[in-house]
Hints:
This protein is mostly helical. The protein folds into two domains: about 1-110, RNA polymerase sigma factor, region 2, helix turn helix motif (Rna Polymerase Sigma Factor, Chain: A, Orthogonal Bundle); about 130-200, Arc Repressor Mutant, subunit A (Orthogonal Bundle). It is built from eight helices and two strands. Helix 1 (about 20-35) packs across helix 2 and helix 2 crosses helix 3. The chain is elongated, with a radius of gyration of 32 Å.
Amino acid sequence: MKSYEGAMYPHNSAFDKISYEEADLADLLQLVAENRDKCAFARLFDHFAPRVKGFLRRNGTAEAQLDDVVQEVMIKVWRYAERFDPKKGKLTTWIFTITRNVRIDLLRKENRPEPDANDPMLVPTPPVKSDDAVYANQAAMRVADALDDLPKEQADILRLSFFEGKSHGEIAEHIGLPLGTVKSRIRLAFDRLRNSLTELEL
């Protein structure tokens, strides 16, 4: 076993100074993909690790993080070897795409603030009391009844506006009415709903 600045991998000194062609590199990765061939992976590591490290250094990765990022890249090469398709591009391009993605993930983690334990969004919603649930269901049914009591043309416009999220202009175009008529019907519908719900003490 030989160490590449923190990463352990099998090593054969006979391959120390071999310069690989792209096709040779793809063949080595295929051995990794098909047979989990550690020797083939060691040769890939020996070839790509220094190049990946140089790329990361040139792109501003902190020196203290370089070895960890290189190791993460090569772990992904080992883990996802079967996903490489030589018909879609070169192995070198594929590995440096992985490198860029790992670096982007690292930057995102560094820029992401730690969650605030007191953030209301992180506080679990308290369970709804049974009385509150009954009241909410009754209120929902009364609102539905009040909608049903509206004239059809007003109810239809409200549903388009609030349940389908359409703007007043989109509603006017959808039903073929002037924009002013749409706004007037929405105002009348609200007035009727307000009166109905006030009578129901909602």
